[in-house]
Amino acid sequence: MLLSVTQYRKTAHLNVTHRRRQGFYALPSTEWRLLSAPPFNFLSTLDLVDDAIDANADVAAHVLEFGLESFGLEKQPFDASLDWRDLATPADLDKARSTIRQFYRDWSAEGASERRASYAPVFSNIARHFAHVSDRGNIKVLVPGAGLGRLVFELCIQGYTVEGNEVSYHQLIASSWILNQTKRARHYKLFPFAMDFSNVVSRTHQLMMVEIPDVHPATVLADPHVNSNKGPHDRMNMTAGEFTELYGDEKYKDTFDAVVTVFFLDTAPNIIRYIETVQNCLKPGGIMVNNGPLLYHHGSPSTSNGKNGSRNTAEHVGQVKLGHVELSVEEVLILIKSMGFEVEDQGIQHEGSGYIQNPNSLLQSLYSTSYWVARKVA
Fold first, then answer.
1. Predicted local distance difference test score (pLDDT) of residue 168
2. Which residues are CB-neighbours of 327 under 8 A, at least 6 positions away?
3. I want to staple 142 with a disulfide (CB 3.0 to 4.6 A). Which of 5, 41, 256, 295 is the partner?
4. In what order do the strands lie in the sheet with 161-166?
5. What is the rounded CA–CA span in Å between residue 118 and residue 106?
6. Alpha-helical segments (H) within the chain
7. How far is 46 from 55, CA to CA, in rounded Å?
């Protein structure tokens, strides 16, 4: 993970702007001179994209510094055999780029509409099912595929005791950094779409800047006006590991009052294993709340580069070797009922939810999402 973050700046400049300058100067001189002058100013645009890449790389550098400290590593090891730099694979670099972009969805004001579309059914259903509980801190919620931790954070400030689980170390370190190390709201500038040159209406859209985090987590968590008698540090934590291997263990049996799966189920090579794991770690009478599409990541290579590839591809290679299957929504609901759950509510949200979607792009990829609430009865 650290290898890919440290190479983010160099590879982004090389792949995004350097190669475009090469292609630009390969044009006939009359054409590149035309496009380099006003009103086009294409070379100036590339300079601005370079500046945006540097701003994004500065965020990556802060994550890297925190990661090095967390793992007890030196930035420039004296022992060459311990030198971890310049060894990242292309897949590692893709995960680093995706993680930096995901700050837009999870931790910018501009990403609030995406979060709202994904989280609203979760908040309303959990609040409704546990309305009789006076202290929400007594309700234990598990969020697998927690990513950068925003859903875990939001549930915690609503008073619940929340445990996030994530398999990607890119996401784990980045989430820990933004939750625990940022000093104030809107501290860092991010240009989530600067490297996208297709379907651009205006360069101002491509070079849109957001500031992260939109709220300062430590300040919000320190607010005493939450629906629990327990402090936030006693009610929020993250675990590292593959969901089924960790929570399918006997020690987690009948542990949680609710399991929340948002844009997560389709990361499973075999969704049966995910449902078995939820069934294992839910208390009798506990609920599973789901909201998301079914963009399976393991049926073919073309399905692995959609909404959240940074945490959903290589980490599950071992599971893929055990087989994979893609079920429809109807089939998933039948499966859930056959595995000891009673479906209490279900439907399709047709309004459309983006995932790190540039709102000004000519290409708008919006997901209709399947939501349901299922209670464990066996």
1. 92
2. 271, 294, 335
3. 256
4. 236-240, 161-166, 140-144, 256-262, 282-292, 367-376, 341-353
5. 11
6. 2-6, 8-12, 19-25, 29-36, 42-71, 90-107, 112-129, 150-157, 169-180, 203-206, 217-221, 243-247, 271-281, 317-320, 329-338
7. 14
C-alpha gyration radius of the chain:
22
Contact yes or no for 263/307 (Cβ under 8 A): yes
Distance from first CA to last CA of the chain, Å, rounded?
40
Instruction: Retrieve residue 339's tokens.
Output: 């595995």
Q: Is 342 helix (H, G, I), strand (E, B) or coil?
A: strand
SS3 163: strand
Instruction: Give the separation between CA 324 and CA 319, rounded to whole angstroms.
Output: 8
Q: What is the pLDDT of residues 266-281, one digit of tens each?
A: 999 999 999 999 999 9
Q: Count CB-CB contacts under 10 A for residue 341.
A: 24
Query: Which two structure tokens, joined as six digits, stand for 187?
Result: 């501290």
Q: Tell me, what's the pLDDT at 302? A: 45
Tokens of 270: 């075999």
Measured between alpha carbons, how far is 104 from 192 in angstroms, rounded to an integer? 6
Q: Classify residue 365 by its DSSP letter.
A: -
Copy the structure tokens of residue 52.
Answer: 């945006």
pLDDT of residue 228: 72
Residue appearing with tokens 């590149």: 32
pLDDT digits (tens, 9 = 90+) for 309-349: 333 444 544 454 568 899 999 999 999 999 999 999 999 99
14 DSSP assignment: I
